Amino acid sequence: MSTNTTNTTNTTDASLVLVTEVRRRRGGAIWLAGGAALAVALLGGGTFALWSQSVGLDGGTITAGDLSLSAEASSFYDVSADRNYTEAIAGLSNPVVKGQKISPETWLMVPGDKVAAVLPVVVTLKGDNLVATLALSSEVFGQDKVIPGEYTYAVYDGKGTAIAQEAKVPAGGVLATLQAKGLGQGVAGGEGIPTRAVDGTETFTVVVFDTFDENGTPEAPGRKDALTDLEVTLTQIRTPGVGN
């Protein structure tokens, strides 16, 4: 019995592997010989992640402005025109107002007298679009007065110059329109109402004059006029406008 011997030659070298690649596109894939998937091209299906990138930016802090009003000590003067007073009221230089300092609790008014209530107020306005009205109110304005007085007012700035010359207290009591220096709104104060820019903080002096009409109806002695019952207000307003 003869024996057939088959010689098997090992063609695989441990240091060299020969691979024959056969690439075929099938359904958008690349195949190796033997059917093993090498990679997916995703030309017709699947998803890509869209690119995105972010970068940090330097931020900023927004600071609120300021609106405030405070009162300094009030004072009262007899400024009757026929008294020939020589003392000038401090802080009122243009025009100068002369009078004699009085105490409203003890001074007795008679027909023809004129008295001035001097009311300094400290205004702070800080804000690029900050505009406010400076107004005067009192229960005696616009109502029947105990004494038939005639009320007028003037407003002086921190340099002693009148920004509102002496005039009757207007309806609503608005004396001036104030706006903070900055972009502003370029608003007008309204008919007969002055507008003034305020650079941070400034002292304004509101002067209220009360004249006891010598031609009015006589009043009984001891009747009172509530000149001390006064209130100054600072109120923000918003109006259309452009930068100044």
From TrEMBL:
Stretches that traverse the bilayer: 29-51
Top-level taxon of origin: Bacteria
Record key words, sorted: Membrane, Transmembrane, Transmembrane helix
NCBIfam families, per the entry: cognate_SipW, exp_by_SipW_III
Protein name in UniProt: Alternate-type signal peptide domain-containing protein
Taxonomic classification: Bacteria, Bacillati, Actinomycetota, Actinomycetes, Micrococcales
